[in-house]
Amino acid sequence: GSGNDALTGDALDNRLDGQAGNDILDGGAGSDQVLGGDGDDVIYASAGNDSLQGQAGNDTFHWTAADGRDTFNGGAGTDTVNLIGSAVADVADAKWNGSAITGLLNNAFIDIEAIHLDLGAGGPGGDWLRYTTSFGVSVNLSTGTATGFASVTGVENLIGGSGADTLIGDAGVNKINGADGDDRVEGGAGNDNLTGGAGSDTFVYAAGCGNDTINDFDAWADGGQDFLDVSAFGINAGNFAARIAIIATGADTVVRIDDSYFITLKNVSGDGDNVITIDDFILG
């Protein structure tokens, strides 16, 4: 009715319509159709593959990993979706169209202004946020910010799309893969595992960074040459030799910065064109 209603469905496929008022709606198990109507409504996804429509008003939707594959349509107003992951390692594939997230965790989003993602404490290897897009995206796990999201928490690992991405880790041990495109990758504190993917990628280092491993550093000047950005250390051509050591260790190369930070470049052997020089660095 026109008041503030609290409606809960059962295990069948229900249709709930809050109409006017600030309603609390929960379809329960089953594949439900839930309509918020006018007002600032709170809508719970619950089990089943639901169609959830906030309609007019500033509505808030809640979804957990135990819920089904749902469609969230905010309608008019400023609408928010809160998504909570599971206790195992989640992979959240984010479909970004350049202006909004249209799909995530097998859910669809229409006219949603704010998405909060919390993947919680995942299993071994941690939780992943992976973008499916040709547009460049930016993610900073240390600040909990990511393109298309109001906030992200509980994410340890990142995979970019095919655009030019900026991907930054946090103080934990992160796995970051830029995928296609000319990406900027910064592991942050913690001993991180980094992959640039195709393209000319830049790996960024500053004081407080961890001892990282880069899996696919391309030292060749032709094609997708990659770079190590050490400009934040104040390293320049004049002091490069005193502050940077390039050490061949079997099939790999270790770059030592100020006797304090170590970067392992896997399969950079130091032979022929597969060798690191000052030309592979961005200096201050």
Unreliable spans are: none
- Global Rg: 23 Å
**Individual helix count:** 1
Question: What distance separates the N and C termini?
Answer: 66 Å
Shape: elongated
Q: Report the structural category.
A: mainly beta
Give the topology string: H per helix, E per strand. Answer: EEEEEEEEEEEEEEEEEEEEEEEEEHEEEE
Helix content: under 10%
Strand percentage lies at 35-45%
Number of E-type strands: 29
Provide the spatial order of strands within the biggest beta sheet. Answer: 2-4-6-8-12-11-10-14-18-20-22-24-28-27-26
Largest sheet: 15 strands, mixed
Provide mean pLDDT, rounded.
95
Short description:
The chain has 284 residues and is an all-beta fold. 1% of the residues lie in helices and 37% in strands.
Report on this structure.
- The protein is elongated.
- The protein is mostly beta strands and 284 residues long.
- The chain has one helix at residues 240-243; strands at residues 6-8, 15-17, 24-26, 33-35, 42-44, 51-53, 60-64, 71-73, 80-84, 91-96, 101-104, 107-110, 114-118, 128-132, 138-140, 145-146, 151-153, 157-159, 166-168, 175-177, 184-186, 193-195, 202-204, 213-214, 227-229, 244-249, 252-257, 261-265, 281-282.
- A 15-stranded mixed sheet has the order 2-4-6-8-12-11-10-14-18-20-22-24-28-27-26.
- The mean pLDDT is 95.
- It has a domain at 1-84.
Outline the secondary-structure elements:
Elements: E1 6-8, E2 15-17, E3 24-26, E4 33-35, E5 42-44, E6 51-53, E7 60-64, E8 71-73, E9 80-84, E10 91-96, E11 101-104, E12 107-110, E13 114-118, E14 128-132, E15 138-140, E16 145-146, E17 151-153, E18 157-159, E19 166-168, E20 175-177, E21 184-186, E22 193-195, E23 202-204, E24 213-214, E25 227-229, H1 240-243, E26 244-249, E27 252-257, E28 261-265, E29 281-282
Parallel strand pairs: 1-3, 2-4, 3-5, 4-6, 5-7, 6-8, 7-9, 8-12, 9-13, 10-14, 13-17, 14-18, 15-19, 18-20, 19-21, 20-22, 21-23, 22-24, 23-25, 24-28, 25-29
Antiparallel strand pairs: 10-11, 11-12, 15-16, 26-27, 27-28
